[in-house]
């Protein structure tokens, strides 16, 4: 398996608080991966470490086997669209493409111009005067024109309406499928991610909680409904991820390691969204309650 992005006990600290801690994960080549987690989980921090904007305080991050911080050879292989697609607002899209051509040795200007022409983006208007969706498309066109082997996108569709979101993701998928680009895309919009991603990384409270191919993760999780469960082992269940109980009944989201054949349990398939939400719900809110001096 070719690995494009790899972290090994990676950590980044702001003052005395870890924004990312002990984070170990791998992203195989050719995947379109979703990076998911609640606000403050460490998603932007991970992306910024991967594109060399931040330097690790612990552990390591490697892109194509090399540390990205200060490594221009590696950085030339990466396209990055940061949160809120920051672009120089007084520059027109055409001027930004000229700039891109000067700064990147493998620049494909025709690709960017074609994309923006097809989308009807005006070339001579300052990008500060474009809509959020149009700006996002300009930023994506610039990132794609670099012909990156790895494309990292930090909440690229957050400001877009549902139709613009769908068009953005479709055009992204079309472009990367042909080029075989590996993509890591952070978003809170789980339904969108389920449509376009085939790999998942869930971060929670600065740590990686769940990593794997979407198909495998969905296949190995199940919902079980049955008599109230007191924690005793259930054959076929490797771990209970989340449990809710009434007086007489329990509903469990479990990770299986075989078939659950106990007739006491009704076994149901789950969606990717069910799996993600279960892993996010098992997080611990205790620390922030202590900091706010209120009971958890
Ligand atoms: N420049 C900074 N200085 C201090 N703390 C920071 C800084 N950037 C991020 N943090 C903290 O690091 C943690 C992780 O932040 P990060 O932006 O990586 O989360 P995120 O998962 O991208 O969140 P969101 O979904 O809200 O964008 C948070 O607790 C945040 O407050």
Task: Summarize the structure in words.
The chain is 32% helix and 30% strand. The chain is α/β, with parallel strands linked by helices and 296 residues long. It folds into two domains: 3-205, Rossmann fold; 216-288, no CATH class. The strands form three sheets. The chain has a six-stranded mixed sheet with strand order 5-6-7-3-8-9, sandwiched between helices. The radius of gyration is 21 Å and the shape is elongated. The N and C termini lie far apart (44 Å). The mean pLDDT is 89. The structure holds adenosine-5'-triphosphate. Adenosine-5'-triphosphate is lined by residues 14, 19, 37, 39-45.
Task: Write a brief structural summary.
Residues 5-230 form the ABC transporter domain. With 296 residues, this protein is α/β, with parallel strands linked by helices.
CATH class of the largest domain: Alpha Beta
Q: Order of strands in the sheet with the most strands? A: 5-6-7-3-8-9
The CATH level-2 architecture of the largest domain is identified as: 3-Layer(aba) Sandwich
CATH superfamily of the largest domain: P-loop containing nucleotide triphosphate hydrolases
* Global structural class: alpha/beta
Q: Kindly state the percentage of residues in helix.
A: 25-40%
Count all strands and give the number.
13
The helix/strand series, from N terminus to C terminus, equals EEEHEHEHHHEHEHEEHEEEEHH
Number of separate structural domains: 2
The largest sheet, given as strand count, sense and whether it forms a barrel, is: 6 strands, mixed
Strand content: 25-35%
Shape estimate: elongated
Please report the number of helical segments.
10
**What molecules are bound to this protein?**
adenosine-5'-triphosphate
Low-confidence stretches: none
Could you tell me the CATH topology label of the largest domain.
Rossmann fold
- Calculate the mean pLDDT score and round it: 89
* Spatial extent as radius of gyration: 21 Å
Distance between the termini: 44 Å
């Amino acid at each position: 398996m070719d690995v494009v992005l790899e972290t090994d006990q990676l950590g980044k600290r702001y003052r005395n608080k870890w924004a990312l801690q002990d984070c170990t994960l791998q992203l195989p080549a050719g995947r379109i991966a979703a990076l998911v987690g609640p606000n403050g989980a460490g998603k932007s921090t991970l992306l910024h470490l991967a594109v060399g904007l931040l330097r690790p305080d612990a552990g390591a991050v490697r892109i194509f086997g090399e540390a990205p911080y200060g490594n221009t050879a590696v950085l030339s292989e990466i396209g990055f669209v940061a949160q809120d697609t920051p672009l120089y607002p007084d520059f027109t899209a055409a001027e930004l493409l000229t700039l891109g051509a000067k700064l990147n040795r493998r620049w494909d200007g025709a690709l960017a111009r074609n994309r923006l022409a097809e989308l009807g983006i005006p070339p001579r208007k300052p990008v500060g005067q474009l809509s959020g969706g149009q700006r996002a498309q300009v930023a994506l066109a610039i990132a794609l024109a670099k012909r990156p082997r790895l494309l990292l996108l930090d909440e690229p569709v957050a400001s877009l309406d549902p139709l613009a979101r769908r068009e953005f993701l479709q055009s992204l998928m079309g472009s990367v499928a042909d080029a075989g680009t590996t993509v890591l895309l952070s978003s809170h919009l789980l339904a969108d991610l389920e449509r376009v991603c085939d790999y998942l990384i869930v971060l929670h409270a600065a740590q990686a909680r769940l990593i794997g191919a979407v198909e495998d993760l969905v296949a190995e999780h199940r919902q079980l409904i049955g008599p109230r469960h007191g924690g005793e082992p259930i054959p076929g269940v490797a771990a209970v991820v989340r449990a809710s109980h009434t007086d007489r009944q329990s509903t469990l989201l479990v990770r299986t390691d075989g078939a659950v054949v106990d007739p006491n349990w009704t076994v149901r398939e789950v969606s990717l969204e069910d799996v993600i939400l279960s892993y996010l719900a098992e997080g611990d809110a205790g620390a922030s309650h202590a900091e706010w001096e209120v009971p958890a």
